[in-house]
Design goal:
alpha/beta, Rossmann fold, five-stranded parallel β-sheet, globular, binds adenosine monophosphate
């Protein structure tokens, strides 16, 4: 009684964060799930790369940091994310890919959600063994994909971002997905975990 779940209909979760190391496949998976749920996939990495490509003031500020595989500072990222989440298309929900990456960013996101009276529905962690992640990165050919930069991005992930898994897990929000499988298997596991199984 009172459940919105019935055959053929699953109430879609609408505020989702994707977590995981670089090259875990989360970008691809995030885009696919967001399209299915009709919510915007917000990749902070894509937004920053676009700013760099456009040569905007933001792009010029972050270009060197990104090329070295370091993290853009939290205050700058707070502005970027706050502005993006304020746009009309994000009001009904969103899928964040690549944010938050630090404890401070997680606190910023909490603040933004509190202001709008909303909460996260899920955080989806896609993980894979380190050698798989490095091999994938080296096969991809992006400017920040040279091996030393790849290693630095992974090191920063372990140091700054991985602790967020524990944080979100303690809130009952973390869904762990084995990213060392084919794209379709990962996609199915994600849908099962967030209750968005395609019929
Ligand atoms: P990504 O495509 O998510 O791997 O991001 C590419 C690069 O953009 C990262 O290596 C960082 O330099 C920068 N970046 C993206 N998102 C963030 C974030 N939330 N905080 C800090 N830096 C970020």
């Amino acid at each position: 009684m009172g459940s919105s779940r019935r055959a053929g209909f699953v109430a879609a979760a609408k505020r989702i964060v994707f977590l995981g190391p670089p090259n875990s496949g989360k970008g691809t998976q995030a885009a696919g799930l967001a399209e299915e749920l009709a919510i915007p996939a917000i990749s902070t990495g894509d937004m920053l790369r676009q700013s760099v490509a456009e040569g905007s003031a933001l792009g010029r500020r972050v270009e060197g940091v990104m090329a070295r595989g370091e993290l853009v500072d939290d205050d700058l990222m707070a502005d970027v994310v706050r502005q993006r989440l304020a746009k009309p298309d994000a009001q009904k929900g969103f899928l964040l890919d690549g944010y938050p990456r630090t404890q401070a960013q997680a606190a910023t996101l909490n603040g933004i959600l509190e202001e709008t009276g909303s909460v996260l529905d899920h955080t989806v962690l896609i993980d894979a063994p380190e050698d798989v992640l490095v091999a994938r990165a080296l096969g991809r050919g992006r400017v920040d994909d040279q091996e030393d930069v790849v290693r630095e991005r992974l090191r920063l992930y372990r140091e700054k971002t991985e602790p967020l898994n524990t944080y979100y897990d303690s809130q009952g929000l973390l869904r762990r997905i084995d990213g060392d499988q084919g794209v379709d298997e990962v996609a199915a596991a994600i849908r099962a975990a967030v209750g968005a199984a395609a019929e």
